[in-house]
Fold this protein.
Amino acid sequence: MTDIAKLVERFELRFGRAPQWVVRAPGRVNLIGEHTDYNEGFVMPLAIERAVWIALAPREDRRVVVESLDFGGMIDFELDEVASAQPASGHPLRPSGRTGPTWGAYFAGVAWSLHHTGWPLHGWEGVVQGDVPVGAGLSSSAAVEVAVACAFAARGNWPIKIVPVATACQRAENQWVGVGCGIMDQLVSLAGKKNHAVLIDCRSLEWRLVPFPAEAAIVIMDTGTRRGLADSEYNMRRAQCEQAARLLSLRALRDLNWENWPSCESVLPEPFRRRARHVVSENHRTLQAVEAMEQRALDRLGRLLVESHHSLRNDFEVSGPALDTMVEIALAQAGCLGARMTGAGFAGCAIALVDNNSVHDFVPKVTAEYQSRTGLEPKLYISQPADGAQIFDVETALRHQSG
Ligand code: GLA
């Protein structure tokens, strides 16, 4: 866990004065609605307790100077230089294409994107640290982006408007970092709320909170596997979905539903048919999951998670052996209501919905069984839905952590 007192101390050591604000932006798990956001469909993620924190203070010049405690090293960039950079060409803090993005790319990319959205930018210096595992499918990149946006908001004294800030962060990732993600991760990192999931309509960008049942916990199950830097499979799925929509003369696969699907299905060749079937069925499941949560029908919610996993594995083909093994082991345990892979897929994390009374037995049993079957070291975290991004003064941040 990030120790805020240590983060503040580190800031004082590095910059010789106290920070003025501490900002926090959480990672997320997606409860259901996977690979639907870029098809303008429905998603229902929740923010988690793991987060990225930045302690910061204003600078009088127009530079941003940041030290990362997780990755080591400092970045130092001039705001006007980043603002005028062309996203497609060389700024030192742009990924080069051959290597993955460095952590500094997210800082410069968010500054660039906020500037082009019309927010005034001012210089600041900070120290960043987080405990969202990187590359595990828990949206550590979105958490960094949102934390950086919050740092600029604190410094510029402008209010955080959730949808425009999420969109600016997504644009930073799409156009500066070069990853074609949807809006889900950034939006939930901002809009998340303790004890709630967030239903997002990724076409209208309307969102609302859905109470998470108090009787159950989410267990995040990190398989210990990581997908490569390339993200090429993700981009390929996205392109296949867009192609399927084009073949049906639709704006997006969102325009399909269970009623009109039978008449469209036969028009699509493989693999477009299975890709589209996943999106149509997943949108349907997501709306059913909202109902199940509102009616506290936990068994139904659990079954929907399992169906989602099967659809991601068979129709969308984004699961992987480690994720499938983890889900299978989880589902065999007492008190496990449902389980599925979460995030982009291939590797990283799965989630399980587990009855509160069983959750403490669940964790050691799944850990031992997964270890013995795969030889891999899993990490399991019991989690409850957490609040979205926050800007604190230093005292409140310290109190927040101790409380
Ligand atoms: C990644 C992307 C999200 C979403 C998921 C799949 O996490 O960042 O926008 O597309 O994959 O649901």
Notes: Residues 30, 34-35, 37-38, 181-182, 184-185, 343-344 surround alpha-D-galactopyranose (CB under 6 Å).
